[in-house]
Amino acid sequence: MCGIFGYVNFLVDKTRGEIVDTLIDGLQKLEYRGYDSAGIAIDGDKKGETLIVKTAGKVKALKDKLDNSNIERSTIFDSHVGIAHTRWATHGQPMESNCHPHRSDPEAEFVVVHNGIITNYRELKTLLVSKGYKFESETDTECIAKLFKHIYDTNLKANIEVDFNELVKQVLYELEGSYGLLVKSSHYPGEAVGTRKGSPLLVGVKTEKKLKVDFVDVEFPEQNQEVPVGSAKNGELNGFIPLSGAEASLRTSQSRAFLADDGLPMPAEFFFSSDPASVVQHTKKVLYLEDDDIAHVYDGELHIHRAKKNAGDSTTRPIQTLEMELNEIMKGPYTHFMQKEIFEQPDSTFNTMRGRIDFENHQINLGGLKAFLPAIRRSRRIIMIACGTSYHSCLATRSIFEELNEIPVTVELASDFLDRRSPVFRDDTCVFVSQSGETADSILALQYCLERGALSVGIVNSVGSSMSRQTHCGVHINAGPEIGVASTKAYTSQYIALVMFALSLSNDSISQQQRHREIIDGLQKIPEQIKTVLKLENKIKTLCTEHLNDQRSLLLLGRGYQFATALEGALKIKEISYMHSEGVLAGELKHGVLALVDDKLPIIAFATRDSLFPKVLNAINQVVSRDGRPIVICDEGDTVLSSSQTTATLHVPTTVDCLQGLLNVIPLQLMSYWLAVNRGIDVDFPRNLAKSVTVE
Ligand code: UD1
Ligand code: M6R
């Protein structure tokens, strides 16, 4: 969804052109999250001048606009702060005036980029308008920029010279809602401040010399410096100005990590971002901000401040090393990220299992769950909660949880679960499944369950994401970054992680040993079997061209384990090719859907042989006797229907029943991809959708 990128160079000479290129490149790495406009703010030639360039549309359009502007590229800056943003509209249409960065005033004394939603922006706006501020956009964000100036000026009038991070604290006291925020100001040249609450933000650090320590101390205020909370609802901002000038401007510490041997400042570069994907090419050293942290970069140092000290607050933030490689987020030989990710599945599924399954001894060891397994086994029920594709991976694995463990399992869509305010108890285990770990509905559901004392388990791809950090324990699915909006490799890896979870829970059961061995042997073969299914690409491509391209609607029939596959296949087709498609439980056909069947409606039927095969065959025959000519997905060597009764048959290798969905979903991923390509759709960025849905 929205993306933040910021670049600070200190004692490292860069031309303005190089700075602009770094910002644009950073935004391009965020494109996969989905957005509708983009913008940057950099220093101008005159002292205190800030240039803002923004546009609705793609980052490429912003780049063209910059290239065609008369902005001088050769000017050299030895210290500079540039901020940039990709926006996904929430308040106000995607148009230039609503794009970020937003400014405090025509001189752009303060410029901000923001992810999230300020819920009290109306009250703030009313107040600021009454003070004479002229708003230029419909966004909630603009009130933040104006608020910075208003509070800065009020301090100034009171002769208080306030430090940038103190100013941020005073502004934050007035804000309600969620934010990832990055601020630049002509009053604080060379300084940048970033902060977050409920929206991710990290800082990448690049220095020539090794840092002294791999953490940054958290700086807390003295008790008498804490700022009382105020609110614009009172009709006045009253949450600030408690400091005397001397206290406010005091810079008390030097960051231990950045101490140089000779006592002189070190050349350094800093990269603020809402996503490590845009930082990894510059540096692997990153610090993830926690909610309410204020990261203040000045004089080549990174400081972390907090407005308040609570008992138990951690006093340091680690500087971690990113394990993600740049080539992991590039397309390689593929045309689209989605295609690359579909073809990565032999590797990504292997990586999910790597180091966790001892295939020889049929043992599973999930490091992140081990200590929690006894507590989970004691729970009264397991509630799996997720959205979209992640929800389908829960549906696909629910029955293996139920089969192996005698614990009731329910599967919930996060939004519906919250709407119902479903009862949750201390003896429940709530499993949150998410690729991004940042999906707002799932995070809200997680917070809801945490408040009620349930044990929370995350099955998450993004290490360091909000969900991975806020759950009690969990499993990283290790599928590597997924960039295409359509989730493909995350689905198969989530599926495997959940199966491994179900197996770990029932590790002790003697009666299940044979079944365990069978499933573990099956898992071992999955990566190779996926390779075999991927060979169907050309056949599927032809099938799309000859039979499906011009269709308006499609039904997918599945039963048992394959119901989830039908739903997931239908979602893929909908979101990428914009063709209406519906996953139908084969047993429900006769209860209404059969009325749609004729010789024209395309139908895909999952007919791999598990215990429910006879019932699926029954449904398929009902379709055929109404002149339907389904595309049948069945086991290698099987002939479910004669060729005259089908449009096509796609053969997939056979595996254990509870794993068959891992193979059966792949033809559908390929089909959705080729339908979209044939229709000229921007596969990685389908309309109206974002990769990471960080709004409710
Ligand atoms: C961990 C390391 C991995 C290393 C392996 C060696 C990390 C991220 N992983 O993998 O690099 O090779 O040990 O033994 O450092 N967690 C949550 N919620 C989630 C996901 C995970 O709380 O949604 C927690 C887990 O409980 C665990 C930690 O995060 O404490 C790491 O989880 P995971 O990466 O799955 O653990 P390992 O596979 O042991
Ligand atoms: O990041 P998450 O797994 O929490 O995202 C959940 C859904 O938004 C996501 O799976 C969505 O349905 C995909 N675009 C489907 O391909």
From TrEMBL:
It catalyses: D-fructose 6-phosphate + L-glutamine = D-glucosamine 6-phosphate + L-glutamate. Gene3D superfamilies: Glucose-6-phosphate isomerase like protein, domain 1 (3.40.50.10490), Glutamine Phosphoribosylpyrophosphate, subunit 1, domain 1 (3.60.20.10). GO terms for biological process: chitin biosynthetic process; fructose 6-phosphate metabolic process; protein N-linked glycosylation; UDP-N-acetylglucosamine biosynthetic process. Residues 372-511, 544-686 form the SIS domain. It holds the Pfam family SIS. The keyword Repeat applies. Keywords: Aminotransferase, Glutamine amidotransferase, Repeat, Transferase. Pathway: Nucleotide-sugar biosynthesis; UDP-N-acetyl-alpha-D-glucosamine biosynthesis; alpha-D-glucosamine 6-phosphate from D-fructose 6-phosphate: step 1/1. Residues 2-300 form the Glutamine amidotransferase type-2 domain. InterPro entries: GATase_2_dom, GFAT_N, GlmS/AgaS_SIS, GlmS/FrlB_SIS, Ntn_hydrolases_N, SIS_dom, SIS_dom_sf. PANTHER family: GLUCOSAMINE--FRUCTOSE-6-PHOSPHATE AMINOTRANSFERASE, ISOMERIZING, GLUTAMINE--FRUCTOSE-6-PHOSPHATE TRANSAMINASE (ISOMERIZING). Involved in amino sugar synthesis (formation of chitin, supplies the amino sugars of asparagine-linked oligosaccharides of glycoproteins). This is glutamine--fructose-6-phosphate transaminase (isomerizing).
